[in-house]
Design brief:
Helix content is 49%, strand content 20%. By secondary structure, the protein is of the alpha/beta class. The protein folds into two domains: 102 residues, no CATH class; 212 residues, Rossmann fold (3-Layer(aba) Sandwich), CATH 3.40.50. The protein has a six-stranded mixed beta sheet with strand order 6-5-4-8-10-11, with helices on both faces. It has a three-stranded antiparallel beta sheet with strand order 1-2-13. The protein has a two-stranded antiparallel ribbon with strand order 3-12. Helix 4 links the parallel strand 4 and strand 5. The longest helix is centred in the N-terminal third of the chain and has 33 residues. The radius of gyration is 37 Å and the shape is elongated. The model has no long low-confidence stretch (mean pLDDT 82).
C-alpha cells in the first residue's frame, strides 16, 4: 500500500506543530498561582475527586478520538492506494458472421444465430462482427467486443427471420414491419438488375470489413449460404476465397440441407482453399459446428500485464465515521 499524495502528511504535521507551539506559549501565562481562591476544601472532597477523574478520562478519550480523526482524515486526503497487477491474457481473434439472408437460408440462419448467442457470451477479448448480404452487403455490427450489443443484434436477426416465416409472436412494443424488414433493408439494392444471392460479393465485402488487415490477428469468417447464385456478381466465390486467403482469413462455411451437390462441392472447394472447412446443416450439428469453430485458431496474447493503482478509502472512511459518532456521543455525555 502507498499514499498518492504524501505531501499532505507533511502539511498536517507542520500545522499540528505550529498549534502546539502557540498553545504552549499561551499556557505558560498561568504557571504560578491559582485562578480561584479558597478551593482547598472543594478539591479535597470525594465528589470533586471523582468528577476530576471522570473529566481526565473523558479528556484523554476525546484527545485520542480527535487525534484518530485527524490521522484518518489525513490518510483519506493523501489517498491510500494499493497496486494491483492484472493479467489481461486475451484471445487475439476476430470473427465475422457472414450471412446469406435469401429466404432459402432462413432455417439454417435461425438455428445459427441462436447458437452463436452462447458462443459470444464465452468470448474473452475477441472481437465479433456481423455482415449480411443478398444482392448487396450490409454490416450490422462492425468488429466489437461489446458482447451485449452483439447478442442483441443476433436476437433482432432471429426475430426478423421468424417474422418472415410466420413463427414470430409480436409484442405490443414491437414494430412488426421494422422487425420483418430488419434483414432485408439495404441487402436488396440493385436487385432488379443484378439478381440475388451474390455469394462472392457478400464474402468479399465481409473480408474488407475487417479492420487493420495488416496487423497480425487470427481472423475467421463464418459463412452461411446455400451457394445458389441467382444473379451476376462483381466478384465470384472463387475470387472472394482467393482474396480471403491472401488476407490470412479462414472461412468456415455452413451449407443448407437443400443445397445441390454441385453448389456444395463448389462451396467446399472455396472454403477449403482458405484453410477453412465446410459443414453440412442438420438439426443436431449446428451447436457442434459452432463449438468446433470456437476451439479453432485461437491465438492467445499472453503476459498482457497491467499495473494500476487503486484507491482503498473504505476502511479509513468507516473508522472516521465511527470516530465522529464517538465524539458526538462523548459531547452529549459531557453536556449532561
Amino acid at each position: 500500500m502507498e499514499l498518492r499524495n504524501p505531501a499532505v502528511i507533511i502539511i498536517v504535521i507542520v500545522a499540528i506543530a505550529i498549534y502546539f507551539i502557540f498553545s504552549k506559549v499561551k499556557k505558560e501565562k498561568y504557571t504560578i498561582g491559582s485562578k480561584i481562591a479558597n478551593t482547598k476544601y472543594l478539591k479535597n472532597s470525594s465528589y470533586y475527586k471523582k468528577k476530576i477523574k471522570q473529566y481526565n478520562l473523558i479528556k484523554k478519550i476525546i484527545y485520542l478520538v480527535f487525534g484518530s480523526s485527524i490521522l484518518l482524515s489525513t490518510i483519506l486526503i493523501s489517498r491510500l492506494a494499493k497496486v494491483d497487477t492484472i493479467n489481461n491474457d486475451q484471445y487475439n481473434r476476430d470473427i465475422f458472421l457472414c450471412m446469406d439472408v435469401s429466404a432459402s437460408v432462413d432455417e439454417l440462419n435461425t438455428e445459427l444465430v441462436e447458437s452463436l448467442k452462447d458462443t459470444v457470451k464465452k468470448l474473452n477479448g475477441e472481437r465479433f462482427g456481423i455482415s449480411i448480404f443478398n444482392t448487396s452487403s450490409v454490416v450490422l455490427v462492425p468488429l466489437t467486443d461489446d458482447y451485449d450489443y452483439v447478442i442483441g443484434v443476433l436476437g433482432e436477426i432471429k426475430k426478423s427471420l421468424e417474422a418472415n416465416n410466420s413463427t414470430y409472436t409480436s409484442s405490443s412494443s414491437d414494430d412488426f414491419f421494422y422487425v420483418r424488414n430488419y434483414i432485408y433493408s439495404g441487402t436488396l439494392e440493385g436487385n432488379e438488375t443484378r439478381g440475388s444471392s451474390l455469394i462472392g460479393d457478400g464474402l468479399a465485402s465481409c473480408v474488407y470489413s475487417f479492420s487493420n488487415l495488416d496487423e497480425e490477428r487470427t481472423r475467421i469468417i463464418i459463412l452461411s449460404t446455400d451457394n445458389d447464385l441467382a444473379g451476376t456478381p462483381l466478384v465470384t466465390l472463387d475470387d472472394a476465397a482467393k482474396i480471403s486467403r491472401s488476407k490470412g482469413i479462414k472461412v468456415f462455411g455452413i451449407g443448407t440441407k437443400i443445397m445441390s451437390s454441385e453448389d456444395r462441392i463448389a462451396l467446399k472447394e472455396a472454403v477449403e482453399s482458405t484453410h477453412g472447412k465446410l459443414y453440412n446443416h442438420s438439426n443436431s450439428t449446428v451447436d457442434s459446428i459452432v463449438k468446433d469453430i470456437e476451439s479453432t485458431s485461437k491465438s492467445l496474447l499472453k503476459n498482457q500485464i497491467e499495473t494500476k493503482k487503486v484507491d482503498i478509502p473504505q476502511v479509513p472512511f468507516i473508522l472516521l465515521i465511527i470516530s465522529i459518532i464517538g465524539l458526538i456521543v462523548i459531547s452529549k455525555k459531557v453536556a449532561k
